[in-house]
Amino acid sequence: MSDSKESTSSSSKAGIEPANSEVVHVIEHGRDIHMYKITDIELDVLKSNYDSWSLGFCTLCLGGFIGFLIPLATIKLSDKMCAIFLSLTVVLFLLTIFFGTKWLIDRKEVKKRIKQIQERKL
After folding, report:
1. What is the percent of the chain with per-residue pLDDT over 70, rounded to a whole number?
2. Is the pTM of this model over 0.70?
3. Is 89 helix (H, G, I), strand (E, B) or coil?
4. 3-class state of residue 11 by DSSP
């Protein structure tokens, strides 16, 4: 009876280290883990480029572009309405190209920075 109290009252169980331990045990399960050291500044730069709003605005403008293009192609509009829909379609198309290009550039920059971090030896 006293043996069961001692075994349940112990703080460390088999395979579990105490919280204040600074040792990390890695158990391999058929995969490789690569760890790279980066600074806070590098992490902030990666985050700022990767959290780009450009993709969101690109998809928003693309949806608007398609939404205004469909009535132009399918129904007969008055001259004034046709001019409004046509100008909105052109503006949204240009904004889609702009934000899409900006997103691709940001994505390429993030990939380049990640590759730089992976290739350097610390």
Report:
1. 78
2. no
3. helix
4. coil
